[in-house]
What we know:
The protein is an alpha/beta fold. It contains 17 helices and 7 strands.
Amino acid sequence: MLVDPWSSTTIENYEHVFKKFGLKRFPKKFCKELKHYLFERGIVVAHRDFDKIMHRIKSKKEFINMTGIASSGMLHFGHKVDIDLFKFFKSKKARNYFAVCDIDAYVSRPDSVVGSLEKAKEFALENIKDLLALGLDEQDVYVQSNKETRYYEFAFELSKKITRSTFEAIYGHIDLGKISANLLQYADILHPQLPEFEGKMPSITGIGLEQDPHARATRDIAARLPYNLEMPSFIYFRHQSGLLEGTKMSASKKETAIFLSEKPETAKRKILNAFTGGRATANEQRKKGGKPEMCKVFEFLLFHYPDTKKIDKIFKDCKSGKWLCGECKNFLIEFVQDFLEEHNARRSRFEKTAKRIMGY
Length: 360
Ligand code: SF4
């Protein structure tokens, strides 16, 4: 199988995957029109049916903005891209649905990662505080374990529309926990279009490329349901890699990630230890220039630093040898530490609201 939503392998050959599954490269024209750095910097790489959403944005009409995260650990900067995209669409007259997937996290992850539903709920509470601190409102967020009855009814209803062989063909394996998690994920994406929620309306969900099997299955099921639903649209973004060489940013490997609730001092240590594209000595770097394309410090800035002009300048000055790794790391440390101080102060104010969302 080329794309496994539970695997941690990076997809090297994007074009091959696009072709095989009928994804479209995200058009440059849209990137310019949307005016957001995640589009301008090639972080959003592909789409399915985004034209419909673009049309809604241009004509200032409503659309459903839906995404989610599995509460299988604390949120880190790798998750922030998904949240930033959600916030971007929220600013465009969207009807917002951010799912915090605690049931999914427990049933689809090994016990070593999420040992109980209670643990998944503890993570969910912490994740919700991050979401609210990042600017989402209480009404934008729901947790799977505290959702309306209609949502669960719908998830069970969906089970009649996918067979064992289809599941096996799409995912390559059968696992009861993952099947249950999938039914909830399909329900997360499609339920906003039920008459009890928004009714038929185009919807957009941002996902990583490796999540495409879920997108295809959701669209396949949407076509078989006895409801009049708009086919859901998807955009596909690249994942930020880990801070160390050859790693994924992962909550289970703490040195690869900076958590949104991280202490500024530990964030500093992790950035100082990050893999760079620098040369062996400062002199050599001044002569030959660095390699920002392979640098984790640069990648971090590319994914999160909002000023594109500054990013361009860092890229050029690194290549020419004018800007060295020490000053570059200090620049990132200052940016991340300022963010964390502000974020942590904000998240501590949302305990009550987060509990209310959890139904406590
Ligand atoms: Fe990376 Fe910055 Fe060093 Fe260039 S100067 S290699 S971008 S850390």
